[in-house]
Amino acid sequence: MSLPPSVPPVSPSDSLPHSQSKSSADSPSPSPIVTAINIYPIKSCRGISVQSAELTPWGLQWDRQWMIVTPEGEFITQRTLPELALIEPVITAESLYLMAPGQRDFQVPLQQSDPGKSMQVTVWGDRCQAIDQGDAVAAWFSRALGTPARLVRIGTGYDRPVDAKYDRGTTAQVSFADSYPLLLISEASLEDLNQRLDEPLPMNRFRPNLVVSGCSAYAEDEWQQIQIADVLLDVVKPCTRCIITTTDQETTDRGKEPLATLSTYRRWKNGVIFGQNLIHRSRGTLAVGNAVQILS
Fold first, then answer.
1. pTM for the full model?
2. Cβ atoms within 10 Å of 52's Cβ, excluding its own
């Protein structure tokens, strides 16, 4: 992926809401540090906290490499099935290990002699090729979710470029994530939001890949390009938040927050925003403790 001559600034029409922190709007920002890295092997299922992760062409290794779909290939998320939050995947040396309430644990080999049938699937209108993982795991998910479902994996021929409006002149690709390879949120932004709520919410409501500390609330809104370790990352678009953020990831209970409060001060275009989407310009390894250099 080549670096264009210059990184275009956010246009006036894309201007973000100026969200002053309730506690320290004018305080200086120390150098940010990566404090957490999360991967979500199966789209919309429970995440895994890791100390480091390699970058693949689509994002962090193992992140959204699998997805649950209808028998017709349409993607399924917590938006319609909040019970997905209770499905816990674990990556072992040899398998994708699955756990869910009321179900026996199940293992899907990472390497299979018969990789499975190719299947066309749909993610937010994008049609792409995936590999069906077989009838046995499909039956497991169908029982766990109470609806017909199949598990698919990114395979040969998978091609899903990010929105050209935000690709910064790259050929960036994305996995089964909604739109972009990486999502970053600062601890300070969550702290500021929680000061506005009657009851604080954990970071897992927002499902970020990268969490950083050492900056002011919503500082990430102003970043255009950053470097972590040897990896250049473009900060390309705010993350518009959906009903999943109102879903308790431990119980699947839903409420009005944080969307009700975010709508009072974080409106942008046709939604409310929290966190920033990133695309990476090179491969490399990101680790907890890495410094975040703000290049522009």
1. 0.90
2. 15
